[in-house]
UniProtKB/TrEMBL annotation:
It catalyses: an acyl phosphate + H2O = a carboxylate + phosphate + H(+). It comes from the Bacteria. The keyword Cytoplasm does not apply. Residues 5-91 form the Acylphosphatase-like domain. Belongs to the acylphosphatase family. It comes from Pseudomonas oryzihabitans. This is acylphosphatase. Keywords: Hydrolase. It is an enzyme of class 3 (hydrolase). Coiled coil: none annotated. The keyword Hydrolase applies. The active site is at 20, 38. Its EC number is 3.6.1.7.
Length: 94
């Protein structure tokens, strides 16, 4: 199976609403590896690796997020795979 990778920035009410942990859970369900973290400007940043089909499903989920989230924008770009083997919630000083 060929792997693809995406790097993304998600805007809206995405911090303080369980967005990162929910993203980790959904990524694990879909077999996607990578990471997610909060940014100081209120956005969430992510790196996703997986099959084209899994990444398409993950993108749809990112637009929705958990129940308390309100996503107003998302920028995803194709990037090189880093060969990640799990999905992590990265902590920041945000």
């Amino acid at each position: 199976m060929a792997k693809s990778a995406r790097h993304g920035l998600i805007s809206g009410r995405v911090q303080g609403v369980y967005y990162r942990e929910s993203t980790r859970q959904e990524a694990q369900r879909l077999g996607v590896t990578g990471w997610v973290r909060n940014l100081a400007d209120g956005r969430v940043e992510c790196h996703l690796e997986g099959s084209v089909e899994a990444l398409a499903q993950m993108e749809l989920w990112l637009w929705q997020g958990p129940a308390a989230a309100e996503v107003t924008g998302m920028e995803l770009e194709e990037v090189a795979c880093a060969g990640l083997t799990d999905f992590q919630v990265r902590r920041t000083d945000a």
